[in-house]
Each structure stands twice: as structure tokens, then as C-alpha cells.
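Why do we care about 3D structure at all? Because function follows from shape, and shape follows, mostly, from sequence. That is the central idea of this module. The next example makes it concrete: a single protein chain, its amino acid sequence, and then its structure expressed as C-alpha cells.
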Amino acid sequence: MRKKTVSYLRLFASIVIFSFITSIAYSAENLLPNPSFEKAAKDSPADWKTHIWQGKAEFAYAETGHSGQRSVKISSQEGGDASWTIIVSVEPFSQYRLSGWIKTAILETRGGEGALLNLQNIEGIKTKALTGNTDWMQVETTFETNDNDSLQINCLLGGGGLAIGEAWFDDLSLERISTLVFEPSVVIDASKEGAPISKYIYGQFIEHLGRCIYGGIWAEMLEDRKFYYAVGAAESPWKAVGAKAAVTMRKDKSYVGEHTPWVELAGPNEARGIVQKGLGLKKGMDYDGRIVLSGSSSAAPVRVSLIWGPEPWDRQTIAIDQLAEAYTTSSLHFTAKADAADGQLEIVSEGTGVLRIGTASLMPTDNVLGMRADTLKLLKELNAPIYRWPGGNFVSGYDWRDGVGERDQRPPRENLAWKGVEPNDFGLDEFIVFCREIGTEPLIVVNSGLGKVQNAVDELLYANGDAETPMGKLRAQNGSEEPYNVHWWGIGNEMYGDWQLGHMPLEDYVKKHNRFADEMRSADPSIQLIAVGAAGKWSETMLKECADRMDLISEHFYCDQQKGLLPHVKQITNNVRRISNTHRRYRQTIGALKGKDIRIAMDEWNYWKVQTLRDALGIAAGLNEFYRNSDIVFMANYAQTVNILPCIKTTKTDAAFTAPGLPLILYRNHYGTIPIKALGEPEPLDVAAAKSADGKTLTISIVNPTRQDQELDLAFKGIKIGKEGKLWRIAGDDEMASNEPGKEPQVKIEESKIDNLGRKIVVPPMSISLYEWKAE
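And the structure:
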């Protein structure tokens, strides 16, 4: 129930007038662990760490102190900006006092401030800086934590620049002075409607990076199955069986790619060949595969074995009895008799002559058109309406032609964006099959980095052209007579970044975008185009120069892990709001936008790194912010769906929703489509509301990103709700709780019925609550 811009003095004065603001005062208590550095951990003070921000510095655990026997020291002879640091938990929206004692010797500044205490989280909060020669002197500062629930405190030498000399720090103290108590209150006003929420807000993004597609969506178990790397090389998952020198890579008679392994055989009693380890196997699971071989007739029989243990009987072997100089494909079928985390596929012979191994493949028999059945099951539950593919940075070095045609003959390539090997098993045709299987729309991004305009046009015509056209005929030859009718097309990815393959100056890229758009629309006028944007000069210029050649403009943002819970959650909403407001300004200032409704495709958004309950809170709050900006944000694509910052995580044998994936499922399936205003002062809660399209159902989303219960005063205007409703809740006691495949989930969606909703709702800490009522 407060505005964050109000000072504490004004807040305290307002208590006399406004009874809904409450502040609790506290007696002085030092909240810092080991504040006088007397407690040691080996040769350092317990709980404290060192950090060099710039320059050079030396740290010491000094055997002298202000009041005790120890202190910490920082010194620099060449100039340094360094600190002893500690991270502590604090109460948000509270006032604190930080104090300590500092001593200096021949301390000079070189652009810095001197010796001081400061806060890393809150800009401008620092004590007086000392220089020269000073005996122990006390310094202090008072500050408000705002929405921070943890702080990094620095005993600092330097500060924004360098300092030379010595400084000692001792007897620090952090005391809480007062804390505001919230009384959040919201009125849901059904008469104040926003623009309808686009279903595309719940989109997803997949890229050829890490284990997103290979090892996540695609069911292939063998890595480098086309032998891009030489067998036995450090990068290769394949190793020689028998004499290493017997396996060589030859370009002559190569089956696919630049070379194929040749095995020189030694005859009976010496098995030679290759093996790949590290396969995940499940007891009782069937596995299908194929192997492409050629060689001397005397090299037969070739034994292909699936191995799940160390004993001779811990395997199933298939014999291929005939070989010829021409490559032939043989089918494989195995049943694992035990679980194995380090299963193997072995290909050997005790014959004579030469064995050539063109390629091999192995998938669980329950694969669905080449895709993992367990992953597909979760993807269908996720129910995302659109998927963006193939990138991401990957697309700027990708030639779509490498990914069509007979799968075993598609060439393996270096993944230019992310390194490693792209086997090209999952290409445009497989992406369309994927979309149809899970009931979603495709959004294909064309290569405007290293790619040429004609290549993009050919890709479009391959997807959408009639079977009588050259590209449509090629598609028909590859198995699909009917056009795919792909509606959404993105032109390029993050071309503003110098990390992007094919990056060029903005003034050149706007011309390139326009050439792509003109040629693609000429080939198929029905398509919708998404241009590369980045809020600031890039988006502004793209909108000025290319507004007639785009339907949506892309924006991306990723958020780092923050120390505090509330700041961590709010950075998602802050970014959505920032980008949305920026584009609203463009509509007022860019003449080319007059009469146009070019909205945002936030086609990459997420946190970096972990996938925990605290991230789920941020994703749910981000969805709330998308709803509040439904007039300007038309599409959003969570990045990425599987294994890379995922909402679905897989191991070799199992798959599970991560914590951030749960609000995406929940809101996609149950949240309304017509946003209505949630008026009042909800802080620290995040509250959003919507009606169903027919107005008969009301949904309210409440995110509590604090570690305390919050009591919400909830009222309604212009709508009457029924007595019975539903509640879906995602909550937990540990903000770092996560879900792992094959294990009992720590974070779940729990559903319950509610009766006779009262005026007051108690919202549990660290929770996402979605309420649904029938409207009367």
C-alpha cells in the first residue's frame, strides 16, 4: 500500500493521516555475521570473501583491530579497486543503518574515492571515504532497501576508480531501524477492458543448441552418427575396438560427409571395429535402428551389439551376414534386459578385408516419427500455440537445404554459431511434422546473416509452393505433396549484435531486410513477416525504414540471477514494461507508423541458468505484465523449450517439466482472454485479472514474490462472482526448489475448490495463485 518514491520521512508523517500504512521500529541489533572478523576459517575471516573490481590489490587477515585482535586489510601499490564482501539477507522496504571503523595509511586516490563501505545492490549508498593517514574512524550511512531482500556489503578500497595505499576495516554493524507493513488492496473492475490477449503470448522457441533438439526432442541416441569427427579423436564419441590403427578415415567411397571409417580386419580371434559408450538404456525397453555398411564379402558377418553391462551375457547381438562393395542398409532391433547409464553400441567383425561403416542410427521403439515420446507427451500438455525455429544465433549460419532429403545422406556440418556438429537430421520437414504432431503453428526464421535472399525465397517456396513449382516439386519428392502453408516467417535473428554471423551496420541491414521482405512477399503475399528489433536506435530505425515491410517486430531480453527474491522476480516485469513503453513512444514519434499496428514479438525471453521456483515466480509475473500490455505485445516465445533454459528438461531416459514450465502450462490452459483492470495498491503482490471471451468466467492471477504471507483485500466492480470457484497454486518453502527428470517433482501445480470467497485472501509466500469463478 505505498509508492516506492515516497521518502521515509514523508511515509512516517503520513502515518498520522493514513492508517493503512504501518511501520514497525526495531531495537538496534547487529545483523552481520562475524562483524569484527574475530572468527577465522583457515587463514581468512569466516563468511567474508575478496573481490577485485579493477586494477591490482593485496588482501590480508590482519592481526590488529579496532576493538579485538583481528581486522581485514586491503592494500595496493599500483592502484586497485577491491573489496572484502559479504552477502546478507534483509527485509525489503525497510530502513537500515550500516556502520564500521576504518583506518588508512598513505592512501591516495587515482580516480577512486578512497576507503569506504558501500552496497553493491543499491546505487549511491556509501559511507564517507577516507584518504591519507587516519587512525580508526567510524563511518556510517542509512538507507532504504526498497524491494531488495539481500545485499552485498563491501569494505572497499577504490570505489569507481583506483586507490593506492593501505586500509583496515573492523567492527562493522548492520541494524534494521524500521520496516513497512503492507496491506495490499485491489479492486477488479470488469468495466475497464484491455485489448484481447493474443494466444501467441504462450509461444515457444527451439534452436539447434546443446540438447534442445538432439537429445531433447529428437529421439536419436547416437552422437556424431555420420562421423564428422574421426573415430578416436578427442571430439568423437566413437572409439576403436581392437587395434586403434586399424580404423582410418577415408574420403574415397565416403557414404556421407567428407569421410567414412574404414576398418582393416585381422581375421578370427581379433574383433575389430568401433564402439560408442554413454547410452541411456531402460530395462524392458525396445530399441530400433539401422546401420549402413559396405566392404569385403570376407568381412562378414558383422556383429552389432547393444550392451548394458560388463558380463558377456549383458548384451544382445545382431549378425549381418552379407557385405558388398555397395553400401546397404540393415535394420536393427534390440531389447535391453537391464537399466544402464553407460550402455554401448558396438560394431565389430572377426572377418578379413575391409569394413566400411557409412552411418548408424538407434532410437527407442516408442519414438513418434523420430521424436521422443516422453518429450512429446509434455509438449502436448504445454499446448504452446506457436514454435519459433531454427534459431537463434544458429540460423545465421544455417543452410536449410542441408536439412532436407534422405536423412542418412544429409551432410553433417559444423554448427557455426555454437560449435559442435549439426547432423541435419531435424530439418524443415521434421519441424513441420513436429508442429503437426503437437498441434502448434510453425514460425520459421530465415537466414539474413550469412544467407542470401534467393536462399530464403527458395525456402519459402519449398514450404508453401505448389507441387508443380521447382521447390514444391522438391518438397513432394521428399515426402509431402501438399504445401505446408507456413504463415509466420522471421527475417533474421539479433542482427544488431556483433556476435551474430553476418552482422553489419544498421544502415546496411535495413536495406537487406527490405530486399528479403520484398522478394519473400512477391513469392507468397499471404505470409506475415517478423523483423529484427532491439529497443533503442535499432528498433527505431527499423520502424522508420522498414515499416511497410514487417507485420511484427522482434524484441529479446534475458535476465540474470539476482541475489534477492523480489528483485529477481521484478526484473522480468520491468523488462516487459520497458520495451512495451518504448514502442508506445515510437508510435507517437515515428511518422512511418501512422495508421499501422506493428506490435511486438517478444520471441526470446527468459532467465539465464537455473530453473527454480524463484524463476517460476518471475515467469508468472512476466505473463501478468504481458496481459497488462496486450495492446502492444502480440507474441512471446519462451526461450528455450527443452534443456536450454528450459520449461522441459530431459535426461537420456526421462523427461519432466521444470518449475518455470508450470505457469506456462497453467495460464495457457486456464487464464482468460479479455484483460480487465486490477486497480489499487497490490504491492508487494503482482495481480492481474481477465474474463473469458464470452464474459462468463473470471480469472485472477496473484504472484507473491516475498517470503511472508500477504493478506490481500480483494473487491469487485462491474461483475459478480459465483460462490464456487477453483484455485490452482504453485508454491514452496524453498525458492531454489527444482524438478529433475526421473525424480519426484519438488514444484507442482495443485488444484482445489474454493467456496464463498471472502473480502480477504491470504496469499502464501513464494506462490503463484490462479483463481477461476463463474461470473453471475
